[in-house]
Amino acid sequence: MNRITTLHCLTSVFALAALPLSAGPVEAINLDAANANIEVRRLRDNVSVLMGSGGNIAVLVEPDGTLMVDSGIAVSEPKIRAALEGLGSTSLKYVIDTHYHWDHTDGNAWLHSAGATILAHPNTLKHLSEPTTVPEWNHTFPAFASGARPTVLVRDHKTLKLGPERITIQSVGLSHTDSDLFVRFENADVVALGDVFWNGMFPFIDTTNGGHRGRHGPDHHRSGAWPTRHSFRSRRLPRHAHGRARQRATTQE
Ligand SMILES: [Zn+2]
User: Fold this and answer.
1) Closest among 145, 117, 112, 115 to 129, alpha carbons compared
2) CA of 101 to the centre of ligand 1 (A)
3) Is-contact 104 71, C-beta < 8 A?
């Protein structure tokens, strides 16, 4: 199943019926997000996941501030604001873009305006600073306004501290795109994998924009879309971007 098919599968019949025949998966996903409710699931400690706005969004809420992994679809802003308030969030501090795709970065603008510093790989900044075409989606994304672009760049790895939680950010190398990061919440024992792992299917590889299926095979730490190896090596509870959050025990094969 390719990415386009997957996106359509994730889109409601209502959303597709409301679209013109020329619309592609990006338009369908945006319309679906506009109609969807945001489901909140608490994972462990103060880490939760928000589902219903493009890729899943991991959230860490601490008295010192809130950290989000990915920013979802912009049209979901009111519902995501309400979900954050429901989790006790009082101030936004960080947003980490796992990669440049719009279903993970479209909310950057409002979140930056609300006070968040945006972190991402340098190639995410590159793609968001110029028009970028994904042929498989028949779509060209315009450059983001300067305020919606990341200002803290993570080329290899970085560690943050928020309240008692230690957050590590690690570059995956060439995989789903050329800009993928994954994020570990060390104390909560949760890892947010972005789009390098999809629940039940091999991820779409955005080769036009630097993605690579993996030059060194699934056991090589720095290449390819094989992050489940990271997950069970590090004994973490994975939180991937598309599909339901998975327990470690169901991700080990
Ligand atoms: Zn993606």
Assistant:
1) 145
2) 5
3) yes
Distance 164 CA to ligand 1 centre (A): 30
Predicted local confidence at residue 138, as pLDDT: 92
The Å distance, Cα 74 to ligand 1 centre, comes to 16
- Alpha carbon of 122 to ligand 1 centroid (Å): 16
- Which residues, in sequence order, are CB contacts of 192 under 8 Å at separation 6+? 58, 69, 70, 98, 182, 183, 184, 185, 239, 240, 241
CB atoms closer than 10 angstroms to residue 5 = 12
Spell out the residues 6+ positions from residue 104 whose beta carbon is closer than 8 angstroms to its own: 54, 55, 70, 71, 72, 97, 98, 194, 195, 241
Rounded to the nearest angstrom, the distance between the alpha carbon of 63 and the centre of ligand 1 is 31
Which tens digits make up the pLDDT trace of 21-79? 567 889 999 999 999 999 999 999 999 999 999 889 999 999 999 999 999 999 999 99
Residue type, 141: F
Alpha-carbon radius of gyration of the chain = 17
Q: Is the distance from CB of 191 to CB of 236 less than 8 angstroms?
A: yes
Question: Which domains are delineated in the chain?
Answer: 38-250 (3.60.15.10)
Closest Cα partner for 132 from 240, 209, 238?
209
Residue 198 Cα to ligand 1 middle (Å): 10
Tell me, in angstroms, the distance from the centre of ligand 1 to residue 195's CA.
5
Which of the residues in the chain have pLDDT under 50?
1-17, 215-238, 248-253
What distance in angstroms lies between residue 206's CA and the mean position of ligand 1's atoms?
Answer: 8
Is the entire prediction scored with pTM above 0.85? no
